[in-house]
Design a protein that fits this description.
The longest helix has 21 residues. The protein has one domain: Formyl transferase, N-terminal domain (Rossmann fold). By secondary structure, the chain is of the alpha/beta class. The chain contains five helices and eight strands; from the N terminus they run βαβαβββαβαββα. This is Formyl transferase. It holds the Pfam family Formyl_trans_N.
């Protein structure tokens, strides 16, 4: 059985948890990760498991994507994945966004939904394209905002874990 070769682009808890889960899957090989710096949680876990690290700036270019990548996954990534980089991966690039796209695009999506008093929020897995959070939605999950939720608890306890859950479900279909 051929392993699915992937690159994870992202940072912090979400990218670290995605990498940790992928490392337990016999049918997945993470051939590189791309955090914004070498001290991020994603980079630290990758170092422990001897996974190559490609630090990105605000853009991920084709030169930064290893040859042979089947798919690029973006998890809490604030960098733009260029078309040439997406095209280098056999299955393109898929990202997680913490809103029910097309609502609340951009990096302040959770804050915008919270500030607007939305009671139903969620996360979306989508195919990356040339826009910001504009690609075809592949999967979504919604949750209820409870009275005691804060902006931080909404992200940490609900929306970030939804991202991991959506990635797992998607990867199991490949």
């Amino acid at each position: 059985m051929n392993k699915l070769k992937m690159m994870i682009v992202g940072q912090k808890w979400l990218a670290e948890k995605l990498l940790a889960w992928c490392l337990t899957q016999s049918n997945i090989e993470v051939i590189a990760v791309s955090p914004p710096n070498n001290t991020d949680r994603l980079a630290r876990l990758a170092t422990i498991h001897q996974t190559p690290i490609v630090v990105h700036d605000k853009t991920l270019t084709a030169n930064q994507v290893p040859t042979g990548v089947d798919i690029i996954l973006t998890a809490h990534a604030y960098c733009f994945v260029q078309k040439q980089a997406r095209d280098k991966a056999r299955l393109g690039a898929v990202g997680y966004h913490p809103s029910l796209l097309p609502k609340y695009k951009g990096k302040h999506a959770v804050k915008d939904a919270f500030d607007n008093g939305d009671k139903i929020v969620g996360g979306s897995l989508y195919q990356l394209d040339d826009g910001w959070d504009t690609g075809q939605v592949l999967a979504q999950k919604s949750i209820t905002v409870d009275d005691g939720d804060t902006l931080m608890s909404l992200w940490q306890d609900k929306l970030a874990p939804i991202g991991v859950e959506l990635f797992k479900g998607f990867l199991r279909t490949l």
